[in-house]
Amino acid sequence: MDRLKEFISNHVLGNPTRLAIMLYLLPRTRVLFKELLEVLEITPGNLDSHLKALEKAGYVKIRKVFSDRPRTAVEITSKGAQETGKYLKLLREILDEV
Amino acid sequence: MDRLKEFISNHVLGNPTRLAIMLYLLPRTRVLFKELLEVLEITPGNLDSHLKALEKAGYVKIRKVFSDRPRTAVEITSKGAQETGKYLKLLREILDEV
């Protein structure tokens, strides 16, 4: 049952929107803000606040990219990839017990 | 990617504490409030508020049990078992894609 305690104590990835962002980023490394908006169908304000929480935790970096026009890109950090991997391992172990 | 949208739109089970309660209840059908407190290591007020949200969604029933002294028991409903099963299936599908 210690896995359940560990599961509920992760306040960064315990939020489904933040976990979904990390799951989408994990194989892609870097995505545009606009793409995340379309994939997750959430509001820009909502996405922005979750990205800020992920950045504060050190899981992503938010960058301004300039090509024809300025865009916002989100990059996963090695810490973010590692912590997401650990969380997925924990989730899989919990699901295997059910 | 529709699975990610479905995942983030479940506001009942999207909360890790509520999911943990349902995961613990699923094979046991009925547990005491006191036991859930010990298993999850959360405060009584916190557990109470999550159980009320689960009861409002129709996933559990909260009952007063009288033996030597009054206790509170939590029972999973068939709707709760069904919805938790569906959510776990979705989670497994998402994890299989990673």
Task: Write a concise synopsis of the structure shown.
Chain A is α+β, with helices and mostly antiparallel strands and 98 residues long. In chain A, 59% of the residues lie in helices and 17% in strands. At the A-B interface, helix 1, helix 2 and helix 5 of A face helix 1, helix 2 and helix 5 of B.
What's the CATH first level of chain A? Answer: Mainly Alpha
Beta-strand residue percentage of chain A: 15-25%
Structural class of chain A: alpha+beta
Mean pLDDT of chain A: 95
Element-level helix/strand string of chain A: HHEHHEEH
Q: Which regions of chain A are unreliable across 5 or more consecutive residues at pLDDT < 50?
A: none
What CATH calls the topology of chain A is Arc Repressor Mutant, subunit A
Domain HTH arsR-type (chains A, B): 6-93
GO molecular function (chains A, B): DNA-binding transcription factor activity
Protein name (chains A, B): Transcriptional regulator
Description:
2 copies of one chain form a homodimer. Chain A has one domain: Orthogonal Bundle (Arc Repressor Mutant, subunit A), CATH 1.10.10. In chain A, strand 2 and strand 3 (70-76) form a beta hairpin. The longest helix of chain A has 20 residues, at 78-97. Helices cover 59% and strands 17% of the residues of chain A. In chain A, strands 1-3-2 form a 3-stranded antiparallel sheet. By secondary structure, chain A is of the alpha+beta class. The interface between A and B is medium-sized, with 26 and 26 residues. Chains A, B: It comes from Thermococcus aggregans. Chains A, B: It holds the Pfam family HTH_34. Chains A, B: Residues 6-93 form the HTH arsR-type domain. Chains A, B: InterPro entries: ArsR-like_HTH, HTH_ArsR_DNA-bd_dom, WH-like_DNA-bd_sf, WH_DNA-bd_dom, WH_DNA-bd_sf. Chains A, B: This is Transcriptional regulator.
